[in-house]
Amino acid sequence: MGRKFFVGGNWKCNGTNEEVKKIVTTLNEAQVPGEHIVEVVVSPPFVFLPLVKSLLRPDFHVAAQNCWVRKGGAFTGEVSAEMLVNLGVPWVILGHSERRQLLNESNEFVGDKVAYALSQGLKVIACVGETLEQREAGSTVAVVAEQTKAIAAKVSNWDNIVLAYEPVWAIGTGKVATPAQAQEVHAELRKWIHSNVSAEVASSVRIIYGGSVNGANCKELAGQPDVDGFLVGGASLKPEFVDIIKSATVKN
Ligand SMILES: O=C(CO)COP(=O)(O)O
């Protein structure tokens, strides 16, 4: 079975009620390839999830940008996986580098979150990626393998995981990875999964790229054999997100 192209829009901590409605209107009016070609998931801040879910076309889906690591309870300010399930939110982004870096989420903590979210029935976009310093030190593959290992240690079924490779140096910087750089790391991740999880998961898991993806650079990236889609930040707030969705290609 081929890997269906996946395009995620991570809105991060952006948007007003009015802006969010405008983005959804643009998406709802867009002519894009069908659901059998591309899976589209947008991720507004928590407070806008019910609004976006209620307005969004039925062939697009929503994701939360985070959730609590275990069952909810006395954890002020957190949102639990159970709550997302209760609201019919099917996806959650976990391990984004902004949370790893700014909120000190460790590899192990991210692994625990992924496992708990899956156990509650959520689908997970799990993010990995190296810093510029790590890339320059030649440790890119070791870093992303270590991050993936912490997830693999806690998870037995990968059917509901999409792995997002997001080099930190490419996020919000306008400095996109070259298609060759993205392909190289995606292929290494797939190889790691082949050796450490299974051949089946390696061939079926979608590995998507994130970091300064826009309407102009998406096509060439989408053409790489191991790039199964995108996780888009800044450009997902703009009409060009539609062009990124249209770059979907059929994989193997
Ligand atoms: O972090 C990202 C998506 O999760 C990428 O952000 P940008 O597309 O703004 O670089």
From TrEMBL:
Q: Name one GO molecular function term.
A: triose-phosphate isomerase activity
Give the GO cellular component terms, alphabetically: cytosol
One of its Pfam families is TIM
Instruction: List UniProt keywords, sorted A-Z.
Output: Isomerase
Q: Which GO terms describe its biological process?
A: gluconeogenesis; glyceraldehyde-3-phosphate biosynthetic process; glycerol catabolic process; glycolytic process
Q: What pathway does this protein act in?
A: Carbohydrate biosynthesis
SUPFAM superfamilies documented for this protein: Triosephosphate isomerase (TIM)
- Source organism superkingdom: Eukaryota
Family recorded in the similarity comment: Belongs to the triosephosphate isomerase family.
Q: Quaternary state and partners of this protein?
A: Homodimer.
HAMAP family with a match to the protein in the record: TIM_B
This one is known as: Triosephosphate isomerase
Please tell me the species this chain comes from: Acacia crassicarpa
**Taxonomic classification:** Eukaryota, Viridiplantae, Streptophyta, Embryophyta, Tracheophyta
